[in-house]
Amino acid sequence: MRSERRKRCIRRGRLAETGSNLWCVFFPSGGSGGGEGGLEWLPPPPPPPPVPPEEASEARRQGPKQDPAVETAEEATEPAEADINELCKDMFNKMAIYLTGELTATSEDYKLLENMNKLTSLKYLEMKDIAINISRNLKDLNQKYAGLQPYLEQINLIEEQVAALEQAAYKLDAYSKKLEAKYKKLEKR
Fold it and tell me: What does the alpha-carbon distance between residue 54 and residue 51 come to, in Å, rounded to a whole number?
């Protein structure tokens, strides 16, 4: 009963050997037994009967017989020494190209920063020259203003005198009108 069940499980699922003396069978969901998938622990199958040497060599030449329901695995083999050396050379070449690119990019960034600093320095020198010219022009204007200051004071004094004369002229005009009015009164008498 159990071996029959094992055969049925192997057909429906995948058989995997574990480190213990039991075998683990994985069932996909929705198998012929119905229900959900799962796993079951089974005792290991009996060892195969010994094969005579003639049949063994013939079986090796023909290759293993494969049951489509059973998965097989091949042993991983290490690549040849020449392949490893070639892969290492390829890896080092690509790493060298990558590092060269990174260093070149960093170098270009520093060159760009250096050029930007030079341009900024030139702009500041131009602005410094402009500021020096403005300062020189302001000093010249201050000197000219200082030279014009006495004349401006005279103009202010003349303006004050003109205002005083204007007031005197208004007073004189008012006085002359009063005199004229008195003269007319005297004439009428």
Answer: 8
CA distance 5 to 15: 13
First to last CA, the chain: 170
DSSP state of 25: E
Residue 64 is predicted with a pLDDT of 55
Query: E strand or H helix at 9, and its extent?
Result: helix 2-12
Among 67, 16, 66, 61, which residue's Cα sits nearest to residue 41?
16
Measured CA to CA, the distance from residue 109 to residue 114 in angstroms comes to: 9
Cβ contact 47:35 at 8 Å: no
Kindly tell me if the per-residue pLDDT of 39 is higher than 90: no
pLDDT at 144 over 80: yes
DSSP 85-147: HHHHHHHHHHHHHHHHHHHHHHHHHHHHHHHHHHHHHHHHHHHHHHHHHHHHHHHHHHHHHHH
Question: How far, in Å, CA of 131 to CA of 125, rounded?
Answer: 10
